[in-house]
């Protein structure tokens, strides 16, 4: 059974990821763990299979969109988690597509037999070309001299329709499945020689992990180059700042000298203020009383001159 896990995060998942998760869960319940009625309807009705195929294509487009959005995540930890989750969903999607192809093969077993035969006969090896000519002859004579027939000819000599019922779940049509299988892992093209059965979904995780590692490596190299460029730019800016400081060194020296002169002037003014304060308050409290007495005497003299002197007649 395929387990589908949602990418947990601090916030709520976006609508695209939520729709993809729900769609994969629904397709998983239809294709991987269906009830008897649903499975029978999928095997019998081609329209139902086409509907499921359309849903798979839409899910693939959503997954591609999420993969593009995951490349723009700046946080490396969140980006790695998102890419790992997308790889799991890609594996689930590939498994669902393979299950749909298995249902198509079960619905048309004679097409699988014909396509498999064409695949085996279509190898570009000399021995198989000779075998293909041998099969096309209507009445092969025992006296005809040919190279030894390889082990691939045995299934064609003793094959009958019931024998293809057992490996039907692992056979794929030449038009779609084998091309995608060779695209994901070219080493699986040797399966067509009849030595081992087809296993198209097993190498897909390895290929996907390798592509993910390659993508991460390229991003790491890009980040390293960008950091180096930023460091070089910072070094150039620091050199320019040092040069500007050297150019403004004379101005700074003149400003420092001006501040020293201002400090000396302030010290001289403070000394003068202290001298004045000493002159006014240097005699103590007795001098202050004498000052007040003189002020009072002057006031009395002024009053006498103004008010008393005019009344005196000589």
TrEMBL record:
Topology within the bilayer: Single-pass type IV membrane protein
Pro residues composition bias: residue spans: 139-150
Entry-linked InterPro entries: Vesicle_transport_protein_Use1 (IPR019150)
Parts of the chain that traverse the membrane: 289-309
Acidic residues bias: start-end ranges: 110-129
Region (Disordered): 104-211
GO CC entries: endoplasmic reticulum membrane; SNARE complex
GO biological process: one example: protein transport
Keywords of this entry: Endoplasmic reticulum, ER-Golgi transport, Membrane, Protein transport, Transmembrane, Transmembrane helix, Transport
Primary location group: endoplasmic reticulum
Subcellular location: Endoplasmic reticulum membrane
Molecular function in Gene Ontology: SNAP receptor activity
Biased composition annotated in UniProt, kind: Polar residues: 156-178, 186-211
Pfam family for this entry, one: Use1
PANTHER family reported in the protein's UniProt record: USE1-LIKE PROTEIN, VESICLE TRANSPORT PROTEIN USE1
Family the entry assigns: Belongs to the USE1 family.
Protein name: Synaptobrevin
Biological source species: Hymenoscyphus fraxineus
